[in-house]
Amino acid sequence: LQIEAEDRAIGAFLTLSGDQAMSEARALDEKLAGREPGTSTMPLLGLPMAIKDNICTAGIPTTAGSKVLQGYVPSYDATAVARLRAAGAVLVGKTNLDEFGMGSTTESSGYHVTRNPRDLSRSPGGSSGGSAAAVASGMVLAALGTDTGGSIRQPASWTGTVGLKPTYGRVSRHGLLAYGSSTDVIGPLTGTVMDSARLLSALAGADPLHDATTSLAPAAEDYVSAVKEAETRGERPLAGTRIGLIRETLQTRVEDGVSTVVQDAVARLEGLGAEIMEVSIPYLDAHCASYYVNVLSEASANLARYDGVRYGLRPRDAGSAKTVMLGSRGEGFGEEVKQRILLGTFSLSAGYADAYYLKSQQLRSVLSEAFKSAFETADVLISPTAPTVAYPLGKAAGSKVDMYADDLFTVPASLAGLPAISLPVGKAPSSSASSDFLPVGLQIIGQRFAEASILQVARILE
Ligand code: GLN
């Protein structure tokens, strides 16, 4: 397989499922034999795709990047995967990630690191770094990622790809191995905005039997037609669109080079007819801290199921039930995951829950109010996706708290459940080695279920 050779330098994949892919493709050929070319009703017919390895695929190993799930082969497809297959997509493999989605560089995978195809000495971002790298290198045309606090958008920004986090409840989470259930969302990483719309059209929709948090109303839209409409607009395609630049994002942590690229993008939006204004989402730092309290609390409960009894790793000479559990969790989970389980358990424990967990929930409603008033004056909001360009490999290990703090532009849309897309808008020099220029993403945030609007703005700016 050609991908196998190409991936040696990058390490985007954990599993390549070439044989299954070939037989799926052949089955599609047989099914469609005799038809006129171009008359299939399958919108993604033959599209080679990769799936992040925390999403279940029937008959193909699914590890969530964790040793604790080594050898686990799901008996069912996640709803998102089933929908892509039904639309004709062909799955070529499963991509690397930070264990259970916990990280921003893909370096805390239990298996290997993934390199950024734009600069092999750098990280592709995370936690969907394998998916982003697979798309950025051209090994696949599209991939599924998951985003709990930025894990689709930030890797898209660092690799120069398009990453869309849909509204919470727009895409079913059935078959997604949970990290933070109240903000986990599945979405596409692609090379273009139109491909993002194509995938979302296949993915979106209610799944009442499997994920009761998916929304019945408003119904999913035809995102492809929405993007096509944007393509046919005349001279000033954004006339009448009010775009709110989140003021605080150009004041906190952001690198100069990133800020310059984003300001250029703002000028282009204005030239396209948009009305630009500044809006305020105060306390970004506090929301980032509160995100970590919230998500780790949820993770500590979600990860309790990996006990070595039902699936995955089990120590060989385990005697009692207790030693099975201690052994499989002790050997199976990596350092980052263990630390996060401890932190989450602590913030939920008696005597501390009011000071930490409850406080984070209160901040979450403060944030929703801030978004509500921002959307009274603006139709969509914009910011840099991330304050920096791609980190050099190894940097995150030396400054973990900085890595957490660098999530501050992506976590607000997660906590509020809003749709957000990251679109490449230029390149900035890296602060460490001034000679190379690296991709910078612009984040566009919409109101709940307004995926069509953010895709349209993104397409026009693309
Ligand atoms: N970097 C963030 C975290 O570690 C976001 C991860 C994600 O969205 N899965 O929690």
Automatic annotation (TrEMBL):
InterPro entries: Amidase, Amidase_CS, Amidase_dom, AS_sf, GatA. The keyword Ribonucleoprotein does not apply. Residues 122-131 have a biased composition (Low complexity). It holds the Pfam family Amidase. GO terms for biological process: glutaminyl-tRNAGln biosynthesis via transamidation; mitochondrial translation. Its EC number is 6.3.5.7. It catalyses: L-glutamyl-tRNA(Gln) + L-glutamine + ATP + H2O = L-glutaminyl-tRNA(Gln) + L-glutamate + ADP + phosphate + H(+). One of its GO terms (molecular function) is transferase activity. Gene3D superfamilies: Amidase signature (AS) domain. The keyword Methyltransferase does not apply. Residues 1-455 form the Amidase domain. GO terms for cellular component: glutamyl-tRNA(Gln) amidotransferase complex; mitochondrion. Its main location: mitochondrion. Coiled coil: none annotated. Residues 103-131 are annotated as: Disordered. Keywords: ATP-binding, Ligase, Mitochondrion, Nucleotide-binding, Protein biosynthesis, Signal, Transferase. Belongs to the amidase family. GatA subfamily. This is Glutamyl-tRNA(Gln) amidotransferase subunit A, mitochondrial.
